[in-house]
Amino acid sequence: MTRPGRPVGELLRDWRRTRGLSQLDLSIEAGVSARHLSFVETGRSRPSPDLILRLAEHLGMPLAERNTVLLAGGYAPAYPRHELADPELAPVRAAVRRILDGHHPFPALLVDQHWHLVDANPAVALFTSDAPPHLLTEPINVLRLSLHPDGLAPRILNLPEWRAHLLNRLHRQALAANDPVLLDLHEELRGYPDPGPAPEPVSDALSRVLIPLRYRHNDQELSFVSTTTLFGTPRDVTVSGLAVEAFLPADRSTTEALHTLAASRPGRGGGDGGG
Predict the structure, then answer these.
(1) Domain holding 145: CATH number?
(2) Above 60 in pLDDT, residue 270?
(3) Does pTM top 0.70 for this prediction?
(4) Distance between CA atoms of residues 167 and 160, nearest Å
(5) 189 with 152: CB under 8 angstroms?
(6) What is the pLDDT of residue 273?
(7) What would the mean pLDDT of 136-159 be, rounded to a whole number?
(8) Is residue 80 part of a domain?
(9) DSSP H helices in the chain
(10) How many domains does one find in the chain?
């Protein structure tokens, strides 16, 4: 990381405003006087690393951004950033592998903070096997693959509501992380052909409690419930951005179809994803 050019006080002030907090709100939450916080933001007072980290915690800043603010204050980063292949992250890789393998024969994949595919179990071939090469060029972005008209979009039977769900989720994530990469991705996906307004929800018990993914495979409709698994206490920048996205069968026919597909696949092997 390189030392940012903007003062530490400006960075903290921008994050406070992003969160919609007044100086008084943040000072109360962080246990610091509003006067001192004002001095920090205007550059009249240099914050300690402990104060920076305390404010960053209450502002819900991503670990990478906490490092950036520490550097702006003249301090060393507090959180390491390892590559997933590094020896230090071997326990993380093992945990992810157990999760991915444990979901088989149901699709599960590991993505990073920008929704790039990092790893996957063989069942994800259900979504990727017929995708065009330009959507499978690394780094593969799974949201682009999902909503691109050349990708999965024509096979998603409830595309309007699934698209709205993904775009809303991405937009919330981009704002929470204050991440321009995610904001640009949101704008790109929003520009894809609009499938029209969401139809009236299907009046089954599942659709009354969540939005399923209804996906056409050959001549069969498969119905999935999506789940997200995060590491609960990350202290590494890379780990903090990882998420396992799993697609569990929402009905008996989907369960049976996935077991049949798995039995026809030549060996389970390793992950299908790149990274």
Answers:
(1) 3.30.450.180
(2) no
(3) yes
(4) 11
(5) no
(6) 41
(7) 96
(8) no
(9) 8-18, 23-30, 34-42, 49-58, 63-72, 90-103, 125-128, 142-147, 159-177, 180-190, 237-240, 252-264
(10) 2
